[in-house]
Design brief:
71% helix, 146 residues, 0% strand, mainly alpha
């Protein structure tokens, strides 16, 4: 959702806000970002706890099932990135739900979020999209000798 909203607010390939965007539409985009950020504040900890619980309770061995190790690393390595992005998203949520803030404050918070960590959040999304393919095709799985 964040990338779709970014595409409507900014000129393609730049950090310049779309000149043709109505302020009401811009506020609606920030409201959508805030709403989906609140959802992610709840969903991401559940996903992390579920992943850790699965890794703790599974009978599969990370040593023998390289695909599971790859999936776990790709998911868990980005926890600090996600926490930092959530911290930046909290600013947008606060602007949206607590007080009447000028559009310039939203723009500052939005640009801070878009430029966060020099594109590392985008790389995290690519890794998250890679995990299902790793789980399906199971590379690096050792064959059990009988």
């Amino acid at each position: 959702m964040f990338n779709v909203t970014t595409g409507t607010l900014l000129e393609f390939g730049t950090l310049t806000f779309n000149a043709n965007l109505d302020p009401v539409q811009e506020r609606a985009a920030y409201a959508a970002i805030a709403k989906y950020s609140v959802y992610s504040f709840a969903a991401y900890p559940i996903a992390v706890i579920s992943a850790l619980g699965f890794l703790k309770t599974t009978r599969r061995s990370l040593k023998n099932d390289g695909w599971l190790m790859m999936s776990a690393v790709l998911f868990l390595i980005f926890i600090p990135v996600e926490l930092y992005c959530m911290w930046l998203d909290w600013k947008i949520v606060g602007l949206q739900y607590w007080g009447e803030w000028p559009i310039e404050e939203f723009r500052k918070a939005f640009i801070a979020r878009v430029t966060a960590l020099a594109g590392l959040p985008f790389i995290a999304q690519i890794c998250y999209l890679t995990i299902p393919f790793i789980i399906i095709f199971k590379p690096l799985q050792r064959q059990q000798h009988q």
